[in-house]
Structure formats: C-alpha cells, structure tokens
Predict the structure.
Amino acid sequence: MKLHLSYLTPVMALALVVPDGTPTDPPKSVNVKTAAKRIDRLLELDMKRAKITPNAMANDATFLRRTYAGIIGRIPTAKETLEFLNSQDQNKRSKIVDSLLNSPGFNSHMFNFWADLLRVKTRLSNQVSGEPFIHYLKDSIGKNKPYDEFVKEMVTASGAAHSRNNGATGLLMRDRGMPLDSMANTVRVFLGTRLECAQCHDHPFDKWKQKDFYQMAAFAGGLSYRNDLAKVPGANNVRKMYGELRQKKDSDGQKALGRMMRQVSNGLNGSGTGLIQLPKDYKYDDAKPRSTVMAHAIFGKSPKIEFKQPKPKKAKKEKRDPRKWRRMTAKERMKERQRMQAGRRGGRGRSRAPELNTRVSYGEWLTSAKNPRFTKVIANRMWKSVMGRGLIEPVDNIMEKTESSNPALMKYLEKLMVDVDYDLKEFQRVLFNTNAFQREATKKEIPSDQKYHFQGPVLRRMTAEQVWDSMLTLVVADVDTKLREPEARAQSVYNDYERLINMSAEELRAEVNQQKLRYSDPKKYRAQQRQRQTRLQAERSRKAQSEQRKQAELRKRAQPLYRALIKARRASDVAKIAQLKSELKKMGIDVDAVEKKRRDRGSMMRRNRGRGRRSTQLVRASDQQHPAPNGHFLRKFGQSDRDQIQASHTEANVPQVLSLLNGFVEKQVLSNSGSALMRSIDSVSSSKEKVRRAYLGILNREPRGREQAVWAHAIDTEGSGVIKDLVWILVNTHEFRFIQ
Amino acid sequence: MNIKELFQKSDECCRRDFMSGAASGLLAVGAMPVLSGFAAAQDKQKKQGKGKPVDKPLVLGPATAKNVIYLYMSGGISHIDTFDTKPGADNQGPIESIKTNADGVRISQYFPELAKHMDKIALINSMSSTQGAHAQGRYFMHTSYPMRGTIKHPSIGAWLNRMSGKTNPALPGHVGIGAGANTASAGFFESKFAPLPIGNPESGLQDSKRHGSVSEDRFSRRLAKLAEMNKAFTSKFNDRKVRGYDDMYQEALRLMKSDDLAAFDIGKEPKELRDAYGRNQFGQGCLLARRLIEHNVRFVEVVSGGWDTHTNNFDAMEDRCPPLDQSIATLLADLEVRGLLDDTMVVFATEFGRTPDIVNNGNGRNHFPKAFTCWLAGGGIVGGRAYGKTDAKGANVIENPVPVPDLNATIAHALGLPTEHIIHSPSGRPFRVAHKGKPIRALFA
C-alpha cells in the first residue's frame, strides 16, 4: 500500500520533517521549507500519474539569473553573480531568495506587476493625477501590506483623490464616471471572473445574467466621483466664493474657480446605497426596465443589507399657470418642469436613497477568505508570476466548469495563502524555495490548451520592464540605489491640493480675478503667464548663480587641500589621502560622492550639456512615466499602454530588434564611456578576464568551453574593438532576453 | 513652381523609383475583385470554447482604394470656420467664405489652395457624433465604438491590416505620424497591427541605420557570430517565441538593407517640394505619408494638433489654417501628379466640431459633436460636392446625417473590407470594422 502524503494531516507532516535549525526570520505560522516540500510532493504525484519525469535541477548560474529576474526584476551584475557562484554555503539558494525579497528591487518589480494589472497611469485622466495612486501602491508594497487589506482599502476608499495619502482612491478613480465598467474590472482583477459581457445582455458563455451584473454594481450604488466639498477641511472659503460669484452673476469667475478647483473636486463620495436602476432598454422578463434592483453578490454568501423603507414624503400639489406657461421659452419650461417634478417628489433635485455602507459590505465579501474565488485567483496569479504559467489558464476567466490543472495543489496553495495571512512576500518565498522552481526550464513549448505538469519552470522572455531594468544594470552602477522614494512625485500633487483648500478668501479672490482673464482676455492672460514664467526663471537662475558663486568660493578655499590630495594619490599615501578627505569633508566637500556622481553621469551627459538635449532617463521602469511615451524602449518591448488590464506582451517586433541592433545597445552600453559594464571590463587588463567579465555581466555565467579562449585570442590579435563586438553580440542573443 | 514642374525636375533616380512604385500602384487600382486578401482568406479564429462561432474565411469586395492617408485634426476643428461656412449668419464671426472650383461649394477664406482642389474632395457636412469629450471623441472616431473601460477596440488602420494584410512585406502596414496616446491602436488585435509611431517626420524610422561607429563589414561579422551563438539556444529550446525572434531579426535586417527604408527619409525630397508642403511637423508628415504610400504602406495617419479653440478660436484659425491649407493642397496635388490619388483615399477627420454660438467673450467656440464636417478625397470618391447639410446656423443636421461609424464604413467599403464580417476578440466578443455603420454609396457615384 502506497502511503500518500496527502493522506497525512499537516501536523503529522510536520513531524516527519527535520527542523533545519537556523531560522532567519521571526517565527511564522508557516514553515517555508515544509510548505515548499509539500508543493513539490503534490507536483510529483501529479507527474507520476501523468507519467512525466521532472526536469533536472538547474545549475547555480541558471538559478541565480532566474531568481534575480523573478524577484527583483533585473539580472544580477557580474559582481553579484560571482559572489553567488563562488559561495560555498549549503543554503545559499534559500538565503539569496530571502535577501532579494528584502531588497528595494523587489518593491520595484512588484510595482510593475500591479501597474500592469491595475492599469496605472501617471495621469489617470485630464483632471486626476495618478501620482497619489502610484504613491499608495509603492507604499503598500514597501510595507508588505497583506493582500486582503490592500484590496479592501482600494475598494472602499473615499474622499478627495489628491488629498495627502489618499491614493487608495486610485483604483476606482481610474474608471471615473464609468461605475459599471469599474465593477467589471474589479471583479476581473480580484475574482478572475469576466462579467463585462453581462453589462448589456445575459452573458453568452457563462451563467451570469444581466440582472446579476446590475446587482453587483448596486453595491456601489449612488457613488459619486465628485468630492463632497463639505467634508473637505478648509474648503469653506471655496464654497463661500462660489456663492459670492453666483450672487454677482460672475460666470467667468465661476468658470475660473471651477477650473482651479478641478483638482479638489475629484474623489469618491458615497458609502453605497445598495440600489441601482436597470437600464431603459432592459429586455428580459425577470424585471422591468428602469426598475430598481438590490445589491446581491454573484457567489458565496451575499452580504445582508438592511434596506430601510423611506417614509413617503407629502407631495406638494402644484398646478401650471397656462398664461405664464405660454410665454415661456423652451429652456425656461424645462426648468419649470424640473422644479415641479422635484416638488412632487418631496425634495430638491434627485431623490437620494439612504447611504447604507454597502461598499464596505462589498469590500468584506470580496476579500473574505470564504469568498470562493478571491484566494484562488491571487494564489494562481502568484504561481504564474513565479513559474511562468498558472494552474488555471487564463488567470482571469474562471467559469463554473473551470478546473485547475492540479486541483490538490490549487487547494493547497489557497490554504497556504490563508495561512500566511495573505502575505504575498511570504507566499512567494515558499514558491521560490520549491524544487519545482529550481529545476531546468522545460525545453519543449507546451501549447496553451494543454495541461502543464510543471516538470520545471516555463521558458519566458523577460517582460519589457525586466529587459529595460537589465539594460540599466549594464549601464548604471548600483541601479537599485537610484530608486526614488514612493512619495517623490506625489508630493507636489498633495501640496497643490492643500494650497488650494487652505486659501484664504482674499487669496482666492485674487487668484480668481487673475484666472478670469483666461476667459475674458486670453491674450492678456497668456502674456501674464509668460511674464510669470520669466520671473520664475529669473529667480531660479539668480538662485543658481548665487549657489555657483558659493561653490566657486568653496573650491578656491579648498585648492591647497586638493593639490595635496593629488600629491598623496600619486604617492599612494593612503593615510594622507584619508586625512585630506576628512578635512575636505569638514569644509563641506564630499570628494567620493562628487567623483562618483561625475562617473555615473558618464560621457553622455557631458556631450549633451549645452546642446539642450535631454539624455534618456536612466531610471528603473517603476520610476518612469506610466505608461512610457510612445516609441520608448519599454513600449517597444511590450509595456502595456495601460488602457487595458494586463495588456503587456512579450512578442518580438521590428522596432525592438532595431533598438538592439543599432539603438540603445550601441548608444548607452557601448559608446557610453560611463557605462558600468564597459568600465568593469576596462578595469581588468587580461583579455581572458575581460571576456569573463562580459559573460558574467550579461549572461550571468562563466564562458563555456572554447568561448573564452576564442574571444581572448581575437582581442589579442584584433584589438580592443573586439570587446564591443562581444558585448553587442551577447546582448543580442536569445540567451540574454529569455529567462531559462 | 507647381507640383508638376517639381516632379519633372526631380532626380532621374527618384523618377525611376516612382515609376516602379506607380506601376504596382496602378495594377491594384480599379475594380480588382480580390486584393492581397489571399493571406486574409486564411483568417480563421481558433475555437475558444463550446458554442463560440468560428469566423468564416474572409472574402474582400471590389475595392476602389488600396491605401489610406488619414489626416486627423486633434481637438475638434470648427466646422463653421472651415468647411461648413454660413455666410451672412450671425454666428459666422469674422471669417469670410470663398468660392471653390466646385459649383456651389464655398469654404473658409483661409483655404484658398484647397479651393482649387475642391473638385477632388467630397465634403460631408452632416457628420454627427455622440461623444463630446476629447478622449471619447477621438476613440469613437478611430474605432466606431464608444470608449469602454473593459476592452480596447482596434482603430480603422489596424482593421485594414488585419483583414487585408500588408502589400509591402518589408515595411509596416500601419504608421502614425505625430500621434500621441489615444489615437490609433491595435486594440485587442495582436500588437503587430499597432501603428508604428513616428514622432518627428524629419528623423525618420528610429534606429534603422547602423550606428556610425560600425562599418558594414564589422556589422556582418557580428551578425554571423550572433547566429552561431544563437544556434545552441534555438536547438535546445523548441519554442515558437524563440523562433519568432529569429524571424524578426531577419525582417529587421531586410528592412535595414531594403530600398524601401528610404521611404522614411524625407531628406531625399527636393527642397522646393519640402517647402511647398510646409516646414512644420504636419506638412513634413504629409510628405512622409506620401512617400510611405508610394512604397505601399497601407495606412498612414498624420495628426495635427491644437484645434481645441475654446478661447482663441479666430486667432487660431488665422494662424493655423493657412499652413494646413498649404500642406493638404500640396499633398493632393502631389498624389494626383504621381497618379496615386485614384487608389489612395485621403481622409480629413476630427472628433467633433465647434459650437455655432460664439462664446467666451466673442473669442471662442466649445465642443459640438451634434454636427460637424469631415471630408474624403481620392480612392474612388467622386469629389466636387458637399454631401449632407446643416441648418442655417450649422447647429443641426437637416439632410443625410452621417453618424461616425458610417464614415468608417465608407472608408472600409472603398478598401473592399466587408462591413458585415465579424471578428472575435480574445474574450469571445464579436466586433466589426465599423460597428453598425453603413457606407455612403452616393459618394462613389
């Protein structure tokens, strides 16, 4: 009788495992090694049934490159590669996983994952900035916020979109004005279910009816995308100003104020009424068009909502005066009609259903461990991210009959996700520690409609962000240290917002009067703006000049010390060098930093200075504009335009290849004397060593067989130009862009 | 000197190139029943699941046009101040109208050059849209579907390439010059149908030339070694994605060596011709478009921006219309002289018009989707007339309303693309090239 591990309870399974004795992290409810072993066992069973042999274990170099790309989104440097390859530590694989998960690169890479999924843009729309949302995402990743909390925050967010630290509103602001699409997108991303077909008719492929769709949308019933200024502290002045302008019948002023307040007026307002109206062309028998439906979840336990019956208000009885009516214009008649209708309903404007906090109920239902798809979807997405393919494919089109390729493993992964309290970092840590992750990549492509048994990871081309970040690794030293703070760009958005809502009445009046000009006298307005620009410019240059003067003075005073430093360097007098450097530091000059900066900038900047050309922003993808502009390297390589969910691709195209042949590689890696890789190669004198550095830095492995000898010989006979050939070739190989 | 003289004066080699280009152009014109649709005839989509329909093989209809130059006025160009003038009306403002060489058609005084080409142009004064915001309007105009948050529709250029294929294998089939975000896209089609973006027409195709420091010889030696190094990888991994890169390298190298690459280099054109087009991004973009069309690039979009004249309408018209006039007139003349106008449809489109009422202190016009003007020329269009009418103010369409999808259906019809044909998105939803639009057959008669 075969003893299957699946028959054992977790407790018994633990008893069979020998504790490894050196925990590096605080004790968690899940033992990483045990969980990893469990996963491997479930895969083995599946493979045995399918009569498939698991792939051999990958060598260190392959493992390292795959791990770096998978955890921090870039290839390792030559130095990082050597460090790992030379280490004799038995546990080095597990340790590198831990250290990478704790590094800033992980945050950058995870951000790219969410940016693609949540369609993150630097400008969500022409009135709403995406920087607060970006700040929120980066901050949540940095704090390793549990996934269920993260989703719930975004789904229940409210308030002004631009107010400080309220970027969680970004998820729903992304679909501002389109609440139905917003719900469909949320359900697709977090529940892997495609409801959008049911927006207009009963779903043709799945069991959802149009009414189901609307009942889901009802949870956010009454949600307004206009910020309630009454709730904004300090916005009293704005309201008073509106009133003032309305009284004065100053339409230009009102327009000006409206425009200024655009930043303030966007946000999420409303806790959810739980009610929604069916569309006017609803054609099914189960309800009348325009009738109101109540919120109800499509699966799982639908949240209970206490609908209060509103007390019928006494309707005002008003009759039309025929004489007055005849003399009115069409517009006036419409206004009168509206007023009377409102009066009959017993209130001013549209009748409002009571706010019942149904958005929070929805958020709780969505992110509950009991929700049949919430955990499954994230577990599957994480599995796909690590292994290259999901247990369920496609990851976001789960239907009633959808089955994973390994139900026992899927079930275990769901349990694991709950056990780690939705800590995505911890979950991934387990996956990266499995044998499955460490095997060689499968050599034969498995068609998308065939079951995959994970005898090894899938061969994948690096994502656009991984390619870019890896290119940067070749050009910029310590590229991860250049990552910006999460709030870097959001600060100005928050500051502008606060400035506007804290304006005093006089300041408001002055600003409105100035902005009014935009509508009343546009030429004068433009002239004024130009003057303002020149004034700011003059101020800036004055500041820069005075700064320059200060620096020049400082340098003059430091002259003798500098001269002594040069002497000491020539004499290699280490002690003297250190002493002089510290003296200079006391004066306020950090020699090391200045020199490093100069080196990092490289010749590219020197050449471009004075020509008005801006060099390519050499920062990681997570710090670039989102999406990158049309024609940017990232877009060529398949970065999403962020208009659709997960629209990124890894297909080949001609602009990519041209960039590899003649563009980025030539300009930034080879011809740029400041490029980290070239400097690293230049710093060694032996040709063999140069070749080795190239291989270690680009393909992250030692040269094989005759490779080193042949290239070294070529360098010796044909000159150093051959090095550029070698680097160019290595970056253009399949081996570079595909992760084995 | 006029276009004809310029053409005759151009270099012998250019004329030869042109002649060979024209020959292939002429062959495909007229009532040829099926274009290079043989590739498209294999257009069958994989079955996605039970009950999902399989697309029938595509058969193209008779085509009058092979290629499209799509001139897009981003921002919403005012119709009353350009091609739907209302002389004498209160809301016309200071802009006068002038006669054209088409009977009964008058256009704005700022288009004197186009007035001489009105015999080629069919104005559609009765365009009507439901989308009054820029992003939505632009999207609707390009895709015939209203903008949604849950799917992205392909634009007309992507549809053309998808349904009918490329005619020049070395060059892309879809190019966008000066287009920013939110204009054309491949939507849910594969990314190869997306427009190749060209920012500045003067700089041509990015990275298409060998780097200055690398000689031809060195480049070939590098490529040979690269092929050697890749062999091991390709033999180890039996993967379509890897082979896809081998193919793409071949295609890129072919492009680099091909004479067709010269299509992207407008520096090859005589100086006077470049001046005639206008030394600005739009003008040079039109010139580049003509060159690309000559090399059988099927769909080229050239975008002109800055037409969103809320507060400076009349000043903007005065500043921007004359150069626009010059560029487009030169383009039409140039196409005609080279015999390309018969199979190239030139489209002048915008997302909406502008309010007939003058607002913002007598200076501006706001968005107005209810009625506006686009026009078509070439590619089988019978010019010299104005189709559809708006009322005396230019505020309502009173004759032959043309909803936006109908314009795209007309373009599709001219290209021989069946407007009833359904293509499914990867998620299984059915879509058509112009949604429910119906082509305006009257324009071809």
Summary: Chain B is about 35% helix and 15% strand. The first strand of chain B starts at residue 67 and ends at 73. Chain B touches chain A through 67 residues (CB under 8 Å). Confidence is low (pLDDT under 50) at residues 10-55 of chain B.
